[in-house]
Write a structure and sequence with these properties.
With about 70 residues, the chain is an all-beta fold. It has one domain. It has no helices and 6 strands. The radius of gyration is 17 Å and the shape is elongated. The protein starts with a strand and ends in an 18-residue tail after the last strand.
């Protein structure tokens, strides 16, 4: 998770905690295979934000192993 220039990692339950000064921040979820819409947060006190993420299945989970080095990109 990124809030402006601040980063936090979630624990096993998906909870991330970050201490930041008051202000307005862009909230982005940064995890391969997941996506969530960016949001703008106005932080002026302690706040809890719930973010729903969508799992993005790979197009082909074996794509890495199917690479043919004889073909040009």
């Amino acid at each position: 998770m990124r809030l402006g220039v601040y980063f936090a990692c979630s624990d096993q339950t998906g909870l991330a905690r970050v201490a930041i000064p008051e202000g307005t921040y862009d909230l982005d979820v940064l995890k391969t295979g997941y996506e969530a819409p960016s949001r703008v947060l106005d932080v002026n006190a302690d706040v809890t934000v719930e973010v729903e993420v969508a799992i993005i299945p790979p197009e082909n989970p074996d794509a890495y192993w199917l690479f043919d080095p004889t073909k040009r990109l």
